[in-house]
Design brief:
about 325 residues, alpha/beta, Rossmann fold, about 35% helix
């Protein structure tokens, strides 16, 4: 399910639907404020880095977690990731193994994250934390959980899509926010906006006055796969927060897209759906292509028919970002 378009109209051009739903959004904000005002009940033995957001839906948390894992590994640390595993059916805590587990069990993002670091799925984050500590983690990365007050955080990063920003600045269901911008950023240690330079400039112009905390620009860049995308025809499909960004990335590489299938975030990839896409691709002499996250949900019998385009997060001010992370995990490492 895609977010309503009126969520992303500018605050000064508020859509009538947002106006009508604003009282419910205020109740949602009130409930979130009561929850986040609670004191942490658990202090981990290892430093905890939370990668969260104010917006509902995809903002780039997963590539940010991957970037943090790679940074921490380079610093000689043993990071583990804990997550609730959206879309999975296990209660956990479960250590994710892509060789044995499916997206139906763990959710798609944990399968992807497990390729980079030990990843624990549990509906109760505290249980996942305890399992990670017992297994030897010396840094815990929380995938989501910014509005969860139960675990004390050493570093809280708020991730935002630079192009969409904070939408109309209203809370669900009037807008895209889990909590008001000011309230959320007051608890954050830094904000990381993801998008190309043009989007970054627009984001700062609209929201810069609210950003009284360290702010890092970042962009998702496709990994070089040693192939010339401009020589082929492709049918692209994506079930991520903003599928159009994936399609734009492919076009930027010169790919000729015969069709783009935008799916709901975490949407199940049924044999019926994939069979239709496969038949459509064959009829147009095109190759199926999708994202890494979607590839984690592919049934085994479709794995060999779909190629993926991996992307990685590049933070503009790498040195300053690294220094911030070092300070959060240990004063002795500097």
């Amino acid at each position: 399910m895609q977010a309503p378009r009126f969520w992303f109209t500018p605050p000064d051009e508020l859509h009538i639907a947002a106006r009508l739903l604003s009282p419910i959004g205020q109740l949602y904000a009130y409930a979130t404020a009561r929850r986040t005002a609670q004191h942490a009940t658990v202090t981990a033995q290892a430093p905890v880095i939370c990668v969260g957001n104010l917006n509902a839906g995809g903002t780039g948390k997963t590539p940010t977690v991957i970037a943090l894992v790679q940074l921490l590994l380079a610093l000689g640390k043993r990071p583990h990731v804990i997550t609730k595993g959206y879309g999975g059916d296990v209660q956990g805590p479960l250590e994710v193994n892509p060789r044995y587990h499916s997206a139906d069990q763990t959710g798609d993002e944990p399968l992807l994250l497990a390729a980079f670091a030990t990843t624990w799925v549990a509906k109760d984050r505290i249980k996942a934390l305890k399992a990670a500590e017992k297994a030897g983690a010396d840094v815990i990365i929380m995938d989501d959980g910014f509005q969860d007050p139960t675990i004390r955080k050493d570093l809280s990063l708020v991730i935002v899509d630079a192009e969409r920003g904070f939408g109309n600045a209203k809370c669900i269901p009037a807008g895209p926010l889990r909590e008001p911008v000011g309230a959320g950023l007051a608890r954050a240690d830094a904000i990381l906006s993801i998008g190309p330079q043009k989007a970054q400039h627009a984001f700062k112009k609209q929201w810069g006055g609210a950003l009284d905390l360290p702010h890092f620009d970042a962009e998702l860049k496709p990994l070089s796969m040693g192939m010339d995308w401009s020589t082929g025809r492709y049918l692209a499909f994506a079930g991520i927060g903003h599928p159009e960004k994936f399609f734009a990335t492919l076009r930027g590489l010169g790919a000729q897209l015969v069709h783009c299938e935008a799916l709901g975030d975490h949407q199940s990839l049924s044999s019926t759906l994939l069979g239709r896409l496969q038949a459509q691709a064959q009829a147009q002499q095109a190759q199926l292509v999708t994202t890494e996250k979607d590839a984690a949900r592919l049934p085994d019998d479709f794995q060999g028919d779909v190629i993926t385009l991996p992307v990685r997060l590049e933070v503009q001010d790498t040195d300053q970002f690294t220094t911030m992370v070092k300070k959060a995990i240990s004063a002795d490492i500097l």
